[in-house]
Amino acid sequence: MARVQIGRTIRRLRIERNLSQQALANRLGISASYLNLIEHDQRTLSGALLIKLGEALNLDLAELSGTQERRLEIGLREAFSDPLLGADAVPEEEIATLAASAPKAGRAVLALYRAWRVAREDAAGIGLPSGRRILLPNEEARDFLMTARTISLRSKRRPTASPPPALPAPMK
Fold it and tell me: Is this prediction's pTM over 0.85?
């Protein structure tokens, strides 16, 4: 049976409750270094310690499943792999680290990504009264070229202005 790794969940819950490792370790009756090993999934939790942890953090043990972190990782993986962002590939361990150590920042990144996607989709249907479409910087080049061609064709249809009248020759 695979070992369940809940260290990062314990760390997140401890940080959310503004507890230091030493303070939580004292509540659990273990050393801070042992708690550090647990948070980094280097040590497992006994049943008795798991129960103490639930009492110390005032939580239902189901919260230790790590589902929040996994959902955040999946969302971040989707955002960072979007080819329209043009970003370099983000390694899996960096995504996992962001989800575990800075979940609020990770959720903020996801909120920005989702807002960008909605704005991009909305902008795809926005047209100006002139009939031109508003383009976002990362829309495909062919959309840009098609719009540029349309503008070019429209400008050719406009009547050209007559040249300015010639000035009289200077008198001698």
Answer: no
